[in-house]
């Protein structure tokens, strides 16, 4: 009897263990943690040869601005990142001669407020609008030529040499020249001179009035002269 009870207990425990194992095996795996926000600086640091570009993004406070935009827009961003070699071939004194506002504008000129994959450059309209602005003084033209993507600003001609990073919202491309906008590196057009104030033209009535006044003054002078001569002659005659 004891052996039978022991056998039944063992069988019950075995069945319970099998059920627990089956239930555990069928439980869904926990969902992976959502990825952290995209950090442009971390991506550039990992690439390893964008120290100057990183320094300027930080000094102009664009780094935090870019990360914020990526988290709050569906349009995405495209960044043309000049390598350290690109900065090294600039003319001596180019960057130190810029004001803080011009440095900000220079960095903004390398950022397009929309995501553009490499294949989309074949159909995208140029010039591209950048964070610096658009128009004749902010020309940023990208054209596809075979397997090359050529960039022209009116002062700089270069190509996209590598894709640094790409997801569905951010594209970072390496360029081997700093993109120089016309707005900073060419003289700004002189403002148009202020129009000269023209003297008010006289109306015909004004001209007639002036003529009448002039005639009246001349007649009065002639009358006074005649009276003076007549009085003088009368005085002489009386004395004689």
UniProtKB/TrEMBL annotation:
<keyword id="KW-0336">GPI-anchor</keyword>
<dbReference type="Pfam" id="PF02469">
    <property type="entry name" value="Fasciclin"/>
</dbReference>
<keyword id="KW-0449">Lipoprotein</keyword>
<dbReference type="InterPro" id="IPR036378">
    <property type="entry name" value="FAS1_dom_sf"/>
</dbReference>
<feature type="signal peptide">
    <location>
        <begin position="1"/>
        <end position="25"/>
    </location>
</feature>
<comment type="similarity">
    <text>Belongs to the fasciclin-like AGP family.</text>
</comment>
<keyword id="KW-0732">Signal</keyword>
<protein>
    <submittedName>
        <fullName>FASCICLIN-LIKE ARABINOGALACTAN PROTEIN</fullName>
    </submittedName>
</protein>
<keyword id="KW-1003">Cell membrane</keyword>
<keyword id="KW-0654">Proteoglycan</keyword>
<dbReference type="GO" id="GO:0098552">
    <property type="term" value="C:side of membrane"/>
</dbReference>
<keyword id="KW-0325">Glycoprotein</keyword>
<comment type="function">
    <text>May be a cell surface adhesion protein.</text>
</comment>
<dbReference type="InterPro" id="IPR045003">
    <property type="entry name" value="FLA_A"/>
</dbReference>
<keyword id="KW-0472">Membrane</keyword>
<dbReference type="InterPro" id="IPR000782">
    <property type="entry name" value="FAS1_domain"/>
</dbReference>
<feature type="domain" description="FAS1">
    <location>
        <begin position="37"/>
        <end position="179"/>
    </location>
</feature>
<dbReference type="GO" id="GO:0009834">
    <property type="term" value="P:plant-type secondary cell wall biogenesis"/>
</dbReference>
<dbReference type="GO" id="GO:0005886">
    <property type="term" value="C:plasma membrane"/>
</dbReference>
């Amino acid at each position: 009897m004891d052996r039978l009870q022991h056998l039944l207990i063992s069988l019950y425990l075995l069945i319970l263990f099998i059920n627990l194992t089956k239930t555990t095996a069928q439980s869904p795996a926990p969902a992976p943690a959502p990825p952290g926000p995209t950090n442009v600086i971390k991506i550039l640091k990992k690439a390893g040869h964008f120290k100057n570009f990183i320094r300027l993004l930080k000094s102009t406070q664009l780094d935090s601005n870019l990360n914020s935009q990526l988290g709050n827009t569906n349009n995405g961003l495209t960044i043309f990142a000049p390598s350290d070699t690109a900065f090294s071939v600039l003319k001596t004194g180019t960057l130190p001669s810029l004001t803080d506002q011009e440095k900000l504008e220079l960095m903004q000129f390398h950022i397009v407020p929309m995501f553009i994959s490499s294949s989309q450059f074949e159909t995208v309209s140029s010039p591209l609008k950048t964070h610096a602005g658009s128009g004749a003084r902010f020309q940023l033209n990208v054209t596809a030529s075979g397997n090359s993507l050529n960039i022209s600003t009116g002062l700089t001609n270069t190509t996209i040499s590598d894709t640094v990073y790409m997801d569905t919202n951010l594209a970072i491309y390496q360029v081997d020249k700093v993109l120089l906008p016309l707005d900073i590196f060419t003289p700004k057009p002189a403002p148009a001179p202020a129009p000269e104030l023209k003297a008010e033209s006289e109306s015909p009535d004004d001209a007639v009035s002036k003529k009448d006044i002039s005639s009246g003054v001349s007649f009065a002078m002639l009358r006074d002269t005649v009276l003076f001569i007549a009085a003088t002659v009368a005085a002489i005659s009386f004395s004689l």
